């Protein structure tokens, strides 16, 4: 979803050659014209002179990566562990390979060009990993391996059919305490859990569930190493994380020992701000690991649509992440109708667009295909909008495409559009009749 540095340099060289062939070129002036770095959001628009064009081509944002090419629209679908598990548990390699081919073909037929595939949902893995145990959602039991690699199969099928493949992981969320005894002893999460001192340092346990502690340098390294492993093993087009960070309502007592250690070392932030610094450090290290493993790959973040909830409940300062250029795209979950009483779609999308345009980070709009045909119980006056307006998703796509920072759309989730439940199947089919042509009409041959 963005030009590589190599492409830009090739174009720059071509322009230099053309200018010299035309005669009268002053290369010193051309080079000096490229010293002032434009905002990433200015892109590489055609300027009035060759000097201006070359200046745009040579300029790079401070993070060393190029701004995304707004002409390339991401049309993506989240493929969650809930979509994958029925295709895997108890199934042979041949059965899964057939299902993978069908999944990719269905996505392509719907107009998608990108799969966002969940490869690590609960501190576990859908592939043979040196860092995380096999997921029960893949094999039927935590730590029990499959005799084939479903991620490799799906990755190869996506490449065969011309779709991009992004590995989606949940960096902090782990399994339940009742499942940890099934994890083989060679994995860090089991070793940390079994040792009281390491457990206190590297893990957080709330309501019987385990989370990796982003205050721990070792935990952050494990998260980053796991992301790099996916990149290096499968050559994926990117790594994607969603909105699971600190769980909402996690009491401050849960990570009090880590906070006390921070204070003992001279830290002065209150615990809420300290948590946001921890997630910032984690995302920095994730971004660095992804781009070190594969400089041309993308790192994308999909936070909640409510900026207030992100900051207050999940302890993430997405605005700061964007200002620092830590991601290659932002995919806010704008799971609201136009008539939503609290967060109306248009207003919320414009807020995110303003932030995205200012920071130069393209926005991929997350859309709630799973709500079609259902009552939206938190929408107030717009509670029935997803039942009454079959063209809602289509109108959201059209609206999003007019936003200056627009980089694409992302549907949650695969089964909601390809295999909707019986009670919403008719509504999903009606909605698809509106939105599918919009995706297909922009598909390049």
TrEMBL record:
Short name of any one Pfam family annotated for the protein: GHL10
Residues annotated as transmembrane: none
Domain of life, source organism: Bacteria
Keyword Signal in record: yes
Keywords for this protein: Signal
InterPro entries associated with the record: Divisome_Glycosyl_Hydrolase (IPR052177), GH (IPR017853), GHL10 (IPR003790)
Classification via SUPFAM superfamilies: (Trans)glycosidases
Keyword Signal on entry: yes
Annotated ranges, domain Glycosyl hydrolase-like: 73-375
PANTHER family (alphabetical): GLYCOSYL HYDROLASE DIGH
Protein's name in the database: Family 10 glycosylhydrolase
Species the sequence originates in: Candidatus Merdivicinus excrementipullorum
């Amino acid at each position: 979803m963005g030009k590589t540095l190599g492409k830009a340099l090739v174009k720059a060289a071509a322009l230099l050659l053309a200018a010299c062939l035309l005669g009268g070129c002053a290369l010193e002036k051309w080079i000096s014209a490229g010293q002032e770095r434009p905002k990433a959001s200015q892109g590489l628009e055609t300027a009035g002179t060759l000097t201006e064009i070359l200046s745009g081509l040579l300029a790079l944002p401070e993070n060393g990566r190029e701004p995304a090419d707004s002409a390339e629209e991401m049309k993506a679908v989240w493929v969650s562990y809930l979509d994958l598990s029925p295709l895997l548990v108890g199934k042979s390699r041949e059965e899964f390979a057939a299902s993978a081919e069908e999944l990719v073909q269905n996505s392509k037929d719907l107009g998608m060009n990108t799969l966002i595939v969940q490869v690590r949902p609960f501190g576990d893995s859908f592939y043979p990993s040196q860092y995380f145990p096999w997921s029960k959602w893949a094999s039927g039991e935590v730590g029990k391996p499959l005799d084939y690699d479903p991620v490799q199969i799906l990755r190869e099928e996506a490449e065969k059919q011309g779709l991009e493949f992004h590995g989606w992981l949940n960096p902090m969320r782990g399994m339940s305490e009742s499942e940890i005894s099934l994890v083989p002893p060679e994995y860090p999460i089991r070793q940390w859990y079994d040792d009281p001192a390491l457990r206190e340092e590297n893990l957080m346990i709330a309501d019987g569930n385990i989370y990796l502690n982003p205050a721990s340098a070792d935990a952050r390294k494990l998260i980053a190493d796991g992301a790099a492993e996916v990149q290096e093993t499968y050559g994926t087009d990117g790594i994607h994380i969603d909105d699971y960070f600190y769980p909402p309502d996690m009491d401050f007592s849960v990570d009090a020992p880590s906070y006390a250690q921070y204070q003992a070392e001279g830290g002065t932030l209150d615990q809420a701000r300290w948590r946001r610094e921890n997630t910032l450090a984690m995302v920095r290290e994730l971004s660095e690991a992804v781009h070190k493993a594969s400089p041309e790959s993308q790192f994308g973040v999909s936070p909640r649509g409510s900026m207030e909830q992100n900051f207050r409940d999940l302890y993430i300062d997405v605005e700061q992440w964007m200002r620092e250029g830590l991601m290659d795209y932002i995919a806010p979950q704008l799971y609201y109708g136009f008539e939503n009483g609290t967060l109306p779609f248009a207003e919320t999308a414009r807020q995110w667009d303003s932030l995205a345009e200012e920071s130069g980070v393209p926005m991929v709009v997350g859309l709630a295909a799973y709500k079609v045909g259902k009552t939206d119980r938190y929408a107030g006056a717009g509670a029935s909008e997803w039942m009454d307006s079959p063209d809602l998703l289509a109108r959201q796509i059209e609206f999003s495409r007019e936003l200056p920072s627009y980089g694409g759309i992302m549907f949650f989730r695969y089964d909601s559009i390809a295999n909707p439940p019986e009670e919403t199947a008719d509504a999903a089919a009606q909605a698809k009749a509106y939105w599918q042509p919009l995706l297909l009409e922009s598909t390049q041959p």
